Amino acid sequence: MTTIKDVAKQANVSVATVSRVLNQKGYVSKQAERSVKNAIKSLNYKPNAVARSLYHKTSGIIGLFVPDISNPFFPELARAVEDAATSEGFTVVLCNTDSKQEKEEKYIQVLQQKYADGLIIATGTDSIEHILSTNIPVVALDRYISDHIPTVVSSNKAGAIDATEHLIAQGCQFIAHLRGPKGVTSADDRYTGFKQAIEDHSIAHVVVEAGFEIGQSEVATRNLFEKYPSIDGIFAGSDVTAAGAMRAAYQCKRAVPKDVKIIGFDGISLGEMLTPSLSTIQQPIYEMGQQAAKLLMMMIEKKELPSYWHEFSTTLKIRETSTGSE
Amino acid sequence: MTTIKDVAKQANVSVATVSRVLNQKGYVSKQAERSVKNAIKSLNYKPNAVARSLYHKTSGIIGLFVPDISNPFFPELARAVEDAATSEGFTVVLCNTDSKQEKEEKYIQVLQQKYADGLIIATGTDSIEHILSTNIPVVALDRYISDHIPTVVSSNKAGAIDATEHLIAQGCQFIAHLRGPKGVTSADDRYTGFKQAIEDHSIAHVVVEAGFEIGQSEVATRNLFEKYPSIDGIFAGSDVTAAGAMRAAYQCKRAVPKDVKIIGFDGISLGEMLTPSLSTIQQPIYEMGQQAAKLLMMMIEKKELPSYWHEFSTTLKIRETSTGSE
């Protein structure tokens, strides 16, 4: 492997001069700089990333915090972050935090020891002190942390209004909302949107907390069908929750969309895999992940951000679970 | 932040002595070692990971190569690898390669510059030269690369036999196999198992290539139903492919499982989200990911491996798509 000494020898300069050229620090004559660059090229020299990291206190590493990569919303975000980061020469360390503060703190410690350049945080914990006290750039993705941290979200409230009004336009008279966990900003905003649309139209409704998991949602929906047999529309707080509602409808022998129409929220690929295919509110997941990575890289390069609030519009995606008569 | 100098001062030894204790290299008296360790503890000193990396030429980083983290098989593997790695103090860099050789080569270059300690490769490319020529440990996960690389797979052929015999036991008389891409070892082994079981029972059958994606599988299955209306059983090469077959059955108004029984392969959480829920061949995905990480860490620590071939048994998971009469 070519070393910095080989480059110095070939360029006929000292190792210190090569180092100054590589790190763009200190005085180097134009002629010496040219010789060094030619030598680097002809020898195909690759500077040692770790040594550069020690000198610059940067590593080209960014940490991506997700609750659990096996929850199907996050792989699509992770892919987008990784694509954007890689194209700028950064590598992404995957951190499954299970939304636990102690795991987040441990990852922050380990990443800072490795001179990580920044963090993208798509997890929710009650405390935010440990995030605010990191001394590297942070971007919040799919959640709000603080006004001092750039935030990338979708228009959860407006999307929820669209979902609810779509069910009403399809003729639903009694609509259930399977809401996500209380305290999670996206779930709270979707709930607010649902309430607003429903009150505008004076439609019978019921709201239950169903988490963001399929099992909880399946049980909650079965209970709803038993208690309120006339429910004919369901707005699920996520696509995974919607899949649970579809399973409950199947078990209770209620045909979708004939007897009950269902719409989800997220727009993950799961929706297209379901039968019938799931109507949903599409978040631009890939664009959101890319934007978070871009903002983080701007902060790492100490560029000024145009804004700290980046809200992406959602779109109503009508598929089979909310239309037709079969 | 506490530095190595603070530790030396408190322990009343030289910085070089502290360094020898930290790196477990060179002679240090028992007494000096004790003083240094006490000083490290009382000052809560955390050695700079990057400086240690430069000295040891290791970084505590491992690379995980997946084709695309948004394909639902890989997040579950990634979670397992990350859990096992984190518990041993390693961090995992996520690498989406799209199974392209140039992307793999680029990642290998970047990771080696960062002194990555090893790679787990769950992607398939035609060439393997660039993998064989890396100078850090490699483990192959869900694929075979070479006899010289430890391999973690599931018993694809035996699982395919179980799937096919289950359809036959359920009374299927004409079975289609939606096979995965030719040349991908797991897909080839499942095909071989299917053929063996079908020939043992003299059952009418047809095999088509349907990739590992939902769109391709949906189209392939629709064509099959048109051409061979008496197909009453489908063994899909993956759970995602099975979801595509279920969508095709819905479009062609063939009830699952009454008119056609379907079984997948993988055992990802998608199967439980489908309606009806998907019968499948369960691979122990989490255990496989953990085993790959453990083998890699043994190699990094230069321990001898018990074996280079780690094949996990699959289990038949009977759910709704292959049983009952509704």
TrEMBL record, chains A, B:
Protein name stated in the entry: LacI family transcriptional regulator
Span of domain HTH lacI-type: 2-56
One Pfam family it belongs to: Peripla_BP_1
Stretches assigned to coiled coil: none
Record bears the keyword Cytoplasm: no
Keywords: DNA-binding, Repressor, Transcription, Transcription regulation
Gene3D superfamilies to which the protein is assigned, alphabetical: 3.40.50.2300, lambda repressor-like DNA-binding domains
Keyword Manganese part of the UniProt annotation: no
Entry-linked PROSITE patterns: HTH_LACI_1, HTH_LACI_2
Organism listed in the record: Alkalicoccobacillus murimartini
